[in-house]
Amino acid sequence: MKPTLDKIQSFIESINALFLIMLSITLFTGVVSRYIFQSSIPETEIFQKLSISWLVFMGSAIAVKENEHLQIDIFSEYLPSKLRLLKNIVVYILSLFAICILIAVGWKALEAGLNRTELVEIRFLSSQPTLTYYFSSIFGGSFLMLVFHLLNVKKFFIHKGEPGGDEK
After folding, report:
1. What is the largest CA-CA distance in the chain?
2. Whose CA is closest to 59, among 141, 166, 168?
3. Predicted TM-score (pTM) of this structure
4. Cα-trace Rg, the chain
């Protein structure tokens, strides 16, 4: 299972690298066209929004996989092991609840995106695309977060209550 997860993570990180490159190129192109040529390229804005939305949600999925998502752990090292176990269980339950909300919102956004089209005119397309390419990032990233979170919960109980099994 671990080699498969590592391949998935590597694929997601490669896609994120491509989105980061695309974001950098479109931002640079937009600035150059606006300030040097006094002309705007509206299509660059679409690619920027697409890149940012996918970077955020795919990066969040990787953070969940690595158990590096936002947690309040300032007092964890001072807690007795039983209270630390309870705290970790509460964190996993709350995280699961938040991820389920994200999945529901992502699904609704995906459905709404099917009926809405891009407002910025894309000159090289004959018809405006729907907004599913933005909103699919919410659902896709949240779904990956759920998968990685459930695997972390499994690992948590196998390693007797320590996140990832490597914290003491």
Report:
1. 64
2. 141
3. 0.80
4. 20
